[in-house]
Write a structure and sequence with these properties.
By secondary structure, the chain is of the alpha+beta class. Helices cover 23% and strands 39% of the residues. It starts with a helix and ends with a strand.
Length: 445
Amino acid sequence: MKLLDTCELLVTLARKAGAAEAEAYAERTREASVRVRDGEVEELHQASSKGIGLRVICGQRLGFAYGTDLSKDGLKGLAGKAVALAQGAAKDPANGLPRGAQLGAVAGGEYDPAIEEIAPEWKLRAAREAEKAARAEDPRVRKFDSTGAGDFLSQAAIASSQGARGESRASYAYVYCSPVAEADGQLQTASWSDTRRTLATLQSPEEIGRIAARRAARMLGARKPKTQRVPVVFDPQMAAGFIGGVSAAVNGLLVHKKSSFLGALMGKPVASKEVTLVDDATLPHGIATRPFDGEGVVSRRTPVIEQGVLRSFLYDATTARKAKAKSTSSASRAWASLPSIGTSNFYLQAGTQNPEAIVKGVKNGLYVTAMLGRGADVVTGDYSRGANGIWIENGELAYPVQEVTVSGNLLEMLRGIDAVGDDLEFRASTASPTIRFAELVVSGA
């Protein structure tokens, strides 16, 4: 039986068991990966899973059950269990499934048949080619922390008594390389990776290895700068990490709990006019692109911050009901869990300046290429992370620095972004171009 047919059968069985509303979500996944170190295989991994989750509403009471037995008897037992759990739960007026125009019959997904046909030998060869290219790029690359490749395939389906009906397929492949460069007794590690929905667009293992080697080698001879307030530039990978911290602050549940520093600022300027932040589940070939979210709500593009002004938080159906808002198609889930709010393709829209010009505009400052530590407190916005990078002198990348702490406040940092690059690339579901902060505290010696 197809996954969608299984979901529809389970919804029917749940209604017969006493559910006022019922929603079934099923998923089938397969993943495989290889990890090598210095050409030797460290790990071969292959796994698959299949299961279904059932959410029911009985008089404002919620019940949830999941299982892997997709036979009719197994589904019947699951329906009875979910209804029994709901009948014993407390009432909550916010409980309820999405309904109306946001739902519909949807099919699609970002799927590449070539990824399904990848042989295990390809992953091993890709990892070894990345290592080989890294060694050839710089003789100071002596060993590796980790190098690997993998792929992931999934099929999902959803059906509900309120009109949700959807099915999707998805795939992605990835390669990563983390070399260690050594000189004069100093070791420096860096990494580079690429994840793509289609095999044809995946960056070559050789190029991944070369970039990773250059990133590690350029940090050799790093020193510790003095503590000072200076302009700070984040490269795209570090900028994406910063943007990821901001994404937590627009989670509608945290806003409802008054646990976000952005909670009271809807409709107000929270960033410089250079900043437009978007959550887009419809982005072509995006890592998190999908036809519908974890509740069957049709995917959409949500501008979160537009030219510095806060325009939207992210909601699933339950949180939207509590906030008297509409779902932004932001429910994320697996078959064994209830939906929760999550981002899709979350990114800072590209600007007009090339990254070289952004650096050239700094007389004395820091170009950040690696970060450590937790980062931000989403309640207060306080931000502090360890960082490594390249010191900027007179608009040029001058020398490597390490053991630095970059600190500030997320709201002040957003408002202090004075340059956004044109180098936006989607190597993960959260992405950003190069960004420059007018001034941050850099703590060193």
